[in-house]
Amino acid sequence: MIRIINQKKRSIILHGNIITPFQLLENKAIFIENGEIIEIKDERKIDTATLGETEIIEAQGKFVVPGYIDIHIHGGGGSDVMDGDWETINQIAITHSCFGTTSFLPTTMTMSKNKIIKSLQGICKAAKKGTAGAEILGVNLEGPYINSEKKGAQKEEDIRLPLIEEFIQFQQASGDLIRLITLAPEIPGAINFIKYLDKQGIIVSVGHSNATYAQVQAAINAGLSHVTHTFNAMRGLHHREPGVVGAALSSPELTVEMIADGIHIHPVVMKILVQAKEIEKIVLITDAMRAAGMSEGIYELGGQEVTVDKGQARLKDGTLAGSILTMDKAVKNLVNKIGISLPKAIQMASYNPAKSVGVENKKGSLELGKDADIVILNKKLEVELTMVAGKVVYRRR
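The structure assignment produced for this chain is given below.
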């Protein structure tokens, strides 16, 4: 158990093995004040007389790591981003904080314009009000500008061509929180749309796409820089047509998402992705739907019935419909199933996603002046404690 005493604004984490995630620090203590890391100090140099007004968090025999950042979450705890209200987003934030996620991008789906706007307005309200769990970093707009041939669990009747005017309405509804958008670069009007988004500072990701390798390269030249749930809902690798996957594996400009559940991607393919890409270019995501953190059964995603059985979420026709993955399991799978070192797995769950959405100056690693978004793991890599901006939001019982 984690021992916590004296709930104060100033905290110290003692005796843990700190993963920054770039190196392992031993015999160091992390001092936290007003939501930030103010000092990382040799434990032998701590004056115990100064600890009287400090909250002490004992982490003996445990790992102290940066909070996980999930840039692709649809839901959790029985709630879905498309439900469109603060209570929904708050429940998702609380649920995922129990699994080490300290900040995230609520992710929309391909639905009607009015439903997307309602969802974006709900996220905006939640961001302003704050949550009792993981912090909202912005919005991930998945669709509706995708290819119906690779729609996955997105509703075909709501797929449409990109319109700048419509996107402006979406951005206004979100309170200018849209940070990332998934689209198919091969559909009419997409290249000019990508150029517009790039000028606005929006990260453009290829996904739900049947693009050729050449079409992806043209999109990269226009500003494309990201790949949504790599290998899933996209044209695969063929020896005569590399497709979207070939572009993802070979293009240094592209940061790639990985759903490391062993279902969306076979562990051998996970290993191939890690070998093909620089570690810095791989971002772990969950693509979690409302059943994450819940029991198996019948759920709903984007207006479609989803059955969760044996750890898999599928539509009636068998199509994978998001996941019930959590970030702690994604990290554990990388370490246990494909032999990635813990620091590298932590990097893919923390610093890399922070950098991918431009918040690495405040999040993603345990350094002076950064937000005190911290997770304590036991030897089984299970979450013992989650801290967001210096506040403990989850404690394992």
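Interim note for the steering committee: Residues 1-7 have pLDDT under 50 and may be disordered. The chain has two domains: 3-65+365-395, 68-356.
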